[in-house]
Amino acid sequence: MLPIEQNRSLKPLTTFKIGGAAREFAEIVDPADVPAAFDYAEERGLATLVLGGGSNMLVSDRGFDGLVIHVSNRGIAPSPLTPLPTTWGEGYKNSNSPRPTQWGEGPGVRGIRIASGEMWDDVVKFAVEHELWGIENLSRIPGRTGAVAVQNVGAYGQEIKDVLVNVEVFDRKTNSFQTLTNEECEFTYRKSIFNTREKNRYVILSTTLQLSTVPKRNLSYPDVKKWFEGNPEPSLEEIRAAIKAIRDRKFPFPAESIEGNAGSFFKNSLLTIEQFENVKRQFERNLPERLDRLLRYAPSTLYPLPSTLKIPSAFVLEACGLKGFRRGNVQLNPTQPVVVLNVTGNATADEVLTLVREVRTTVQEKTGLHLYTEPELIGFTADELRGYGFNREEIRRYTA
Ligand SMILES: Cc1cc2nc3c(=O)[nH]c(=O)nc-3n(C[C@H](O)[C@H](O)[C@H](O)COP(=O)(O)OP(=O)(O)OC[C@H]3O[C@@H](n4cnc5c(N)ncnc54)[C@H](O)[C@@H]3O)c2cc1C
Known about the structure:
Number of helices: 11
Oligomer: single chain
Bound molecules: flavin-adenine dinucleotide
Radius of gyration: 22 Å
Strand content: 15-25%
CATH class of the largest domain: Alpha Beta
Number of domains: 3
CATH topology of the largest domain: Uridine Diphospho-n-acetylenolpyruvylglucosamine Reductase, domain 3
Strand order of the largest sheet: 6-7-12-10-11
Distance between the termini: 29 Å
Order of helices and strands: EEHEEEEEHEEEEHEHHEHHEHEEEHEHH
Low-confidence stretches: 83-103
Number of strands: 18
Largest sheet: 5 strands, antiparallel
């Protein structure tokens, strides 16, 4: 019998520290219980939401009118890189277990299989402590491991797609447990099948990564490069410490602050050359003093130009004078404006989306850019989203 709670507040389960209650709530420790949770919802005609660490979502002030499935299985274990038979409850070890002896395949290659309920940063710590390279630049990203594949988590030049071998899932469509390979996840920038065409179909239960005992330093990101000037071969521990320090300079880690946030609220813009030319014209007209900086994102030294150019939203927001922009309890972070802060800890979802509407309108007017939003928006109706300025494509995404 599944333990189901009624009317569980979601506010403390999200890093934004915003949102109403879930009508029903199931804490799933054993993945074998996942099908029963969906059966329970179906029998009662309830919508479902899979929740991890709540660090990439904004929950409506009314909450979620359905069943929240909180995936909380635990364990990090060595793994061969070919799929294991799905035998839930066996083979996992606690993160504090001694150094594993049975590792992946091939010289220098090590596989680890991580249950979805493990905090992601504990996994990075585990890898660093075991001298395994490949995810150190992804230090200090909040949330649980079950979600890292969902938006192809990335930071400081590393993305999960570069080390992910496969994910074990429960497939709601076929009512079966399956393993999906890296290719089947169809990773691109902040996207996978899990947040696009197969949204809500799969529950990710474990993630297998291929790490390396051979150093594979990625110090290319400007802040990291600068940090290690004069130290071209830093250790894994040094890189993790640097990433944590660099991140802490930019925005508060929600678990340690009264300020809530969901990380980057605005995605960077990926533009075709033609779209870039339009933005350039808008800058010439409205923001001529920032044109030089814009052109750095399409360097004339690059020939042929890449098919897409990435324009950081942090730059765009700053250029539009929106760094630190505040309305009531909500503010664009003064040090990294892509992060929307619940400054007082008392903000409502309505306040957040009202500020987001104002910000996106200003950006559109000044630059012609439509800034897409990154976190999932939970429990909002299509009409509400339209009122907050979301377009048809976005409404489809958030109400799927
Ligand atoms: C301070 C801060 C910094 C951040 N920095 C970064 C960063 O540098 N790079 C980056 O990419 N992200 C970043 N994020 C965003 C976020 O931390 C990641 O996207 C994280 O992987 C979300 O994990 P979660 O467990 O909190 O997911 P949740 O917020 O609980 O869920 C996010 C989405 O994934 C789905 N989901 C969750 N678990 C599962 C599962 N087991 N199976 C299927 N679907 C599931 C949910 O339904 C939801 O749609 C940051 C967030 C914060 C607050």
